[in-house]
C-alpha cells in the first residue's frame, strides 16, 4: 500500500477549459492581468491558430522562431526580443516546443505566461523547463516558468494530423504512468494519474477514429492536463529520463519517442510496482497494465520501433551511460547497464515488451 504519510504540492495555474472559447478566454485573461505589451509566441505551423486566438487582444510582437527541445541560442534570441520590446506578458500558442520557449524567456525575466496548448504535451501545467546545448538537454524546475493561466480549447487540437494526435496522446499517457513510480509519487497524484489514464483511454480511440470528434478531443485534452499535473507533482521518473536522452542527445522527435518507449518501461517496472500496475489495469479496464496499454496502442496504430525514429544500435551504449546516471535511485526495479541495454535494444527493434517483464518480481536485486 502507498504510504499515507506524505507531503503533496499541487501547482497553482488558473485553468480555463472550453472548446471554441479560446479567444474569449484570452481576452479576459489579458484584462485580468492588466497586460500592456504582449508577445505572442507561435511556430510557423501554429501561426494561423495563434492569429485566431489573439484576434481580440493587442499584440506588441509576434515571435515564430520555435525549435524542439529549445536550443540555447534560440532561447537567447527570444529573450533579447522580449527585452527589446518591453514585453510584460508572454502568450504561447502551440505545442510543447512553443510553451518551452515561453518558459525559457520567463526563466530569466520572470515575465508571466498565458499558455494556449495545441497538443497533448502538457508542458503548460508543469514548472519544468528544458534547454539544449551541445547535444545535451538540461531540465530544471522553477516556479517562474509555470504559466499564470492555461487556456484549453479543444478546437485548436483538431488540426493535429492523426499520427501526431496519437503520439502526443501517448506522450500524455507516459506522464501519468511514469508518475506512479516517480520520486514524489503520493496518493493524490496517483489518483490524478488514474483518472488521466481513464480519460486518455476513452478519448484517444475516439480521436484516432475521427480527428474532428471534438468530444473525443475534449476528453483527451482533459486527460492530458491531469496527466501533466500528476507528473509535475510526482516528478520525473525512469521513462522520462530515457526519453530526455533520446531527444536531447540523439535528436529523436519528442512525442513519438515517448509513444514508442512507454510499453517497454511499463513492462520493465510493472512486476516491481504492483500497486501502480493494478491502478493502470483498473483505469484501462483490462486484465493487466501492459495488456491495457498494448490494446490501446493496437487501436491507435501506435509507433512500434525506435529504429523508425532514427535511433540505431550504435547509440545504445552512450544512451545507457547518460540515462543510467540520471535515473532515480528509487526506481521500483533496480536499473543496471545490462538491463537498460536490453530495454533499449527491445525498443529499438520493436520486440514484444513482454520479454522485459521480470519473472522474479520485487525480489530481484534484493540482497536477502
Ligand atoms: P511540438 O511542440 O514540437 O509540436 C510538434 C509539431 O506539431 C510542430 O511542428 C508544431 O508546429 C505542430 N503542431 C502543434 N500543434 C498543432 C496543431 N494543433 N495542429 C497541427 N500541427 C500542430 O511537439 P510537442 O510534442 O507538443 O512538444 C514537445 C516538446 O515539449 C519537447 O521539447 C518536450 O521536451 C517539451 N515538453 C516539456 C514538458 C515540460 O513539462 N517542460 C512536458 C512535455 C513536453
Automatic annotation (TrEMBL):
Family matches, as Pfam families: ADH_Fe_C (PF25137), Fe-ADH (PF00465)
MF (Gene Ontology): alcohol dehydrogenase (NAD+) activity; maleylacetate reductase activity; metal ion binding
Domain (Fe-containing alcohol dehydrogenase-like C-terminal): residue spans on this chain: 166-347
Residues of the Alcohol dehydrogenase iron-type/glycerol dehydrogenase GldA domain: 12-153
Keywords per UniProt: NAD, Oxidoreductase
Record-linked PANTHER family: ALCOHOL DEHYDROGENASE (PTHR11496), ALCOHOL DEHYDROGENASE 4 (PTHR11496:SF102)
Family that this chain belongs to: Belongs to the iron-containing alcohol dehydrogenase family.
Protein known as: Alcohol dehydrogenase
Organism from which the protein derives: Kocuria palustris PEL
Higher taxonomy: Bacteria, Bacillati, Actinomycetota, Actinomycetes, Micrococcales
